[in-house]
Amino acid sequence: xxxxxxxxxxxxxxxxxxxEPFQTxxxxxxxxxxxxxxxxxxxxxxxxxxxxxxxxxxxxxxxLGYKVRYxxxxxxxxxxxxxxxxxxxxxxxxxxxxxxxxxxxxxxYTVDFHNxxxxxxxxxxxIEPTATGHIIEQIELIKTIIDNGFAYEVNGxxxxxxxxxxxxxxxxxxxxxxxxxxxxxxxxxxxxxxxxSPQDFALWKKAEPQHxxxxxxxxxxxxxxxxxxxxxxxxxxxxxxxxIHGGGMDLKFPHHECEIAQNQAAKGQSPVNYxxxxxxxxxxxxxxxxxxxxxxxxTELLTGHNDIMSKAYSPSVIRFFMMQAGYRSVxxxxxxxxxxxxxxxxxxxxxxxxxxxxxxxxxxxLDIESWKQKCYDAMNDDFNTPILIxxxxxxxxxxxxxxxxxQSISATDLNTFKTTLHAFVFEVLGLTNTTEAAADTDKLTxxxxxxxxxxxEARANKNFALSDQIRDELAEAxxxxxxxxxxxxFSVN
Length: 493
Ligand SMILES: [Zn+2]
Known about the structure:
Layout: E1 10-13, E2 18-21, E3 29-34, H1 45-63, E4 67-72, H2 90-98, H3 102-119, H4 135-147, E5 151-154, E6 157-160, H5 162-168, H6 179-185, E7 201-206, E8 222-224, H7 226-238, E9 242-248, H8 252-267, E10 272-278, E11 281-283, E12 286-287, H9 298-303, H10 315-323, E13 331-333, H11 335-355, H12 368-380, H13 385-404, H14 411-428, H15 434-460, H16 464-476, E14 479-484, E15 487-492
Parallel strand pairs: 3-4, 3-9, 9-10, 11-13
Antiparallel strand pairs: 1-2, 5-6, 6-7, 7-8, 11-12, 14-15
The structure holds zinc ion.
Cofactor: Zn(2+)
Keywords: Aminoacyl-tRNA synthetase, ATP-binding, Cytoplasm, Ligase, Metal-binding, Nucleotide-binding, Protein biosynthesis, Zinc
Pfam family, one: CysS_C
């Protein structure tokens, strides 16, 4: 679809602190990398929001006709507990607690992550590489950084030399930190570390004897530092310099700062044109945190099994709620907020279904083309979904006015109106029509009940061949009948 490619997008670039016109490196193509989850526990709702923001960006760019290669990694190599370069890694810790293999932890929570994202109607990324699948690339990268003089080996571990790097580059370019301030604010742990300076970060760590996840390397049997995998995987699939790098605000420092340093040190250039950071999700006005109990996970929110919300909320309502805030704003998750979003979302869906029964007139009294452009303008302005949604509610108002006869719409405009509204609600915002899904379930129940009745009649007439046939063929179609004293019920597999 080449149709909308001429839209002028502006993206807020964390690197410059400004909204900048979006220009791709290769015309019509976008390379986008987003830091994925560390798969050692259930995905955090805040991370769902971050990934949803980039799912929306991915969807909009695709909608405009760009060919997007979206790479989102899985961190499965187990980086260290406190993000310093010492201590136990998160995956191994979980494996020990649950008495399973580290790779079982990885498998369990990768599947869980995909299941949750599917519930929220995420598009799969184009490539989802794993850190453990790219150990060779990471080792090669370390060799290059050492050869270029920006890393050093001590006792089987390799560290990035931040001070050396800062002589010719700017460590702090993204996070706007100054190395002098970092030095001032770092407390040296009484000489426990092999590092030349506390700001240096590990590219490779020699594994302690009890460390399970380990690989051979020229320096030791060990494992890569956390920041390295993203440089290895982003450049492998998107090239040494690509369009967009995204992640949560909390990754800006040190993770993304270190990615820039590694790329400069290994490839001699900055990796990314546009750095995008999605903001945090709070709960009832406070930071979500396990220790204070102010926390809710996606499943608890969806099932209603929690002490925080008054009821369960559907994935589309939660998605709609999240899209009602800009991705760069802090969003406060509250029961009142979700409940208001639910009402709003239902109003939108009702209007969309009423759109189908609207009659076209000779002439339009509404300016549909300008409404449509306003929707694009909102998204072009750094993906401003709250403004887009305000325009979608204007559409709801228009639909009611056309229905009442106070406004009219031509056949051509009606067609544009339908196509645009559907595109933004379902394709770009990724919402699903829950009323349609409910209607489908009702139809299925109706059809199966007809068959159950026919089977009862066959049994009453002692035509057991037919009654068995109905049961067996339904089973083959994935519908199990269960007979009990109260009658027959069914379940769908
Ligand atoms: Zn990353």
